[in-house]
Amino acid sequence: MLPYQIIEQKAQGDVLTDTAITDFINAYTKGSIPDYQMSALLMAIFIRGMNAAETLALTRVMLDSGERMDFSAAPGFVADKHSTGGVGDKVSIPLAPILAVLGVHVPMISGRGLGHSGGTLDKLESVPGFNVHLDLKSWRDLVMQENVGLIGQTGTICPADKKLYALRDVTATVRSIPLISASIMSKKIAEGIQGLVLDVKTGNGAFMQTVAEARELAHSLVSIGQGYGIKTTALITDMNQPLGSAIGNWFEMKESVLALQGAGPADLMEVTFALGAEVLRMADPDLSQEAAIAMQHQTISDGSAFEKLLKITELQGGDPKVLENLEAYPQTRFKRSIQADHSGYLSQIDTMALGFAGIQLGAGRRVISDRIDYSSGMYIRRKLGDRVAAGDELLTLYSNDESALEEVAQQMPQVFTISDAVPEVPALIVERIE
Ligand code: URA
């Protein structure tokens, strides 16, 4: 079948055959189908969806587009965590070293910013020299030696996802259960892991805005993982406000360091420890939830998790001194403070708008070739349910682009709703799916 016919079929809402999906994706990965036809198919999938068999076929062809790692020689449990994406979600950065210190092998393959959401790779690269493009042998050696290695999709691991991810990022085709499922699970299965915990975000800063959609995505991800013999669970967690306070690559790296130094925001720590406990209890089913949380606390209070992050940074070519001397990082030239115009309770935050504002400030890409300004971003100063007085600072914006900063500053008052009544604040951890 011609690519045109496959696009047409999906645009009409038909179910695609395994062969049609496989041929199309393989041809795109090789470069014989251009971006414009792939974009059209992505949009058709985005609008029409895919059933479980099509999603599985898409996952398989993306997985088979590259190599699969083998960690069967690792002495400990081999596991990973992955988030479906949110604003200020930097959990992977503190969690990977925590788990590594506790004996879990974490071969983490992460993504870049996607749509309005940030990406772990961009955050890591805010540390000068940090190399997320290790060759697979060096990465494998690192995971075997240090229990953790942090890289991105390579030309040889899920190259199909690498190309598709970048294309989805700029064609508004991210928010799709089959596309997210195949993207995440192809990378995770390729890692050769035994266990996986998924952080499925829900709320106005997530790709899945309702709990029902998040639940559907969680079930899709968990069933693919389990089908491949990986112990997989998911936590649905709230993204109706940014996680922690920092949004933007260096700011999030800095907040991750503070988390490992015992000064992390409460919400970030709660989600980090809850996800970590899932992995630790997969590794040792006799471990209680309380013990799994306490072990993680210990890695922070004894400094071992931070030491691990420094070591990994150094071994991946980054400058660990940057993480030890947080205040020396280059600052943006411009800064703007956004204040409450009346008093009351902070009852709503348009979290997705904050994510897109971050991109405008320079923290993300508008087109694939954009370069990121790692120092730009923002700090949110109040959280949902907080009492605020007129004039209180809600947000501080940072950018090297003065006109973008002004533009964003104009939009920000609409992002915050302040009401007279005390609002109901959504639970942080909404549901567990296994
Ligand atoms: N994370 C991924 O790796 N892929 C997606 O599509 C969404 C989040």
Structure description:
This protein has helices spanning 3-11, 18-30, 35-48, 52-64, 92-101, 120-124, 136-146, 159-171, 177-190, 211-227, 249-260, 266-283, 289-301, 304-315, 320-324, 351-363, 402-411; strands at residues 79-83, 106-110, 148-152, 195-202, 231-238, 246-247, 334-339, 344-349, 377-380, 387-388, 393-399, 416-419, 429-433. Helices cover 47% and strands 15% of the residues. Helix 10 links the parallel strand 4 and strand 5 (231-238). It folds into 3 domains: 3-49, Transferase, Pyrimidine Nucleoside Phosphorylase, Chain A, domain 3, CATH 1.20.970; 79-324, Pyrimidine Nucleoside Phosphorylase, Chain A, domain 2 (3-Layer(aba) Sandwich), CATH 3.40.1030.10; 331-419, Alpha-Beta Complex (Aldehyde Oxidoreductase, domain 3), CATH 3.90.1170. The longest helix has 18 residues, at 266-283. The model has no long low-confidence stretch (mean pLDDT 96). With 434 residues, the protein is an alpha/beta fold. Strands 1-4-5-13 form a 4-stranded mixed beta sheet, sandwiched between helices. It contains 17 helices and 13 strands. It starts with a helix and ends with a strand. Residues 84-85, 111, 114, 179-180, 183-184 line the site of uracil.
Fill in the keyword field for this structure.
434 residues; alpha/beta; Transferase, Pyrimidine Nucleoside Phosphorylase, Chain A, domain 3; Pyrimidine Nucleoside Phosphorylase, Chain A, domain 2; Aldehyde Oxidoreductase, domain 3; 3 domains; 4-stranded mixed beta sheet; 4-stranded antiparallel beta sheet; 13 strands; 15% strand; globular; binds uracil
